[in-house]
Amino acid sequence: MESAARRRLESIGRHLLPPRILSRDLHLNPVSLTESNAVGSSPVIIGGMILDIHAKPFTDPVPGTTKPGEVQYVSGGVARNIAECMSKLGTRPFMISAVGFDMAGEMLLRYWKSAGLSTEGILQSKSIRTPVVSIVFDSSGELAAAVASVEAVEKFLTPEFIKQFQSYICSAPMLILDANLHPKSIEFACQIAAAAGIPVWFEPVSVKKSTRIATVVNYITCASPNEKELIAMANALSSRKQFKFHCESTKGQRQSVESLFQMLKPAICFLLDKANWTVLGGCHMNLWMKAAP
Asked: Which Pfam family, an example, fits this chain (predicted)?
């Protein structure tokens, strides 16, 4: 019997890929068959590999002192997380990222290799400080504070570095970019994909970085914002900054999905209207919503 995961993957494929490319054929890209035989055709994902440090106290944190609790090291980074999930669905993604020779970098690469995934596109250098995000939660698991040190993604994943893997991008069924990348790198990767007819998935990462879609919107096939990122994206493309989002709760209960979409509908329609509906093999721009943290 076909698994639920497989059915969901097929559904996503029907939305994201041109009609001539079936999701069951993600390993094959008819646009560039000759090159894919030589290089291999895998989804290409460019962005951060980040070590997340999660600290959760048993009772609510108090400024100026320590509290008993749990601290965990977690492999993270939006691009890395997507790649890992894809690998667990049976795809062999090609990851382009950067880490250092420090403890965080060694930990991330050790896990990556243990999963049997390629490290060819991952730059490791003594001059790189591996991206790390330190997160403090409250006792209920909600975010209380966080510090992110992810400058290496912008600094080292340059257009020049990405160009080394142009053949992989041109033979991929899809290119996925996370917005931790420098805007010039995002644009450069999009241009490579557009020239080869490759669909591009833009993952906004955060409210602030989601606005980086502004210069590449006509290249994007799919975006996956949460509510706040979606509003930020729409405002980045609107000269009037007209879109707002207020998530109100009643007696601890969030608004219904239907009411949220009604509230977000103007921004969604605006984004879809701003996208180039004929770019990349006729794919429409799709918005896949994820829940805001």
From this structure: PfkB
Beta strands in the chain (DSSP E): 44-46, 50-57, 69-76, 94-100, 122-125, 132-137, 143-149, 175-178, 200-203, 222-223, 249-250, 253-254, 286-287
Please, are residues 210 and 179 in contact by the beta-carbon 8 Å criterion?
yes
185 has pLDDT over 70 = yes
Is pLDDT above 70 for 39? no
Burial of residue 161, with CB atoms counted within 10 A of its CB: 0-12 exposed, 13-18 middle, 19 or more buried: middle
The token pair at 67 is 């509290």
For 253-289, the pLDDT digits (tens) are 666 777 877 888 888 888 888 765 332 333 345 555 5
pTM of the entire structure? 0.78
CA distance 79 to 177: 7
Helices 227-236 and 257-274, packing angle to 10 deg = 30
Q: How many CB atoms lie within 10 A of CB 290?
A: 13
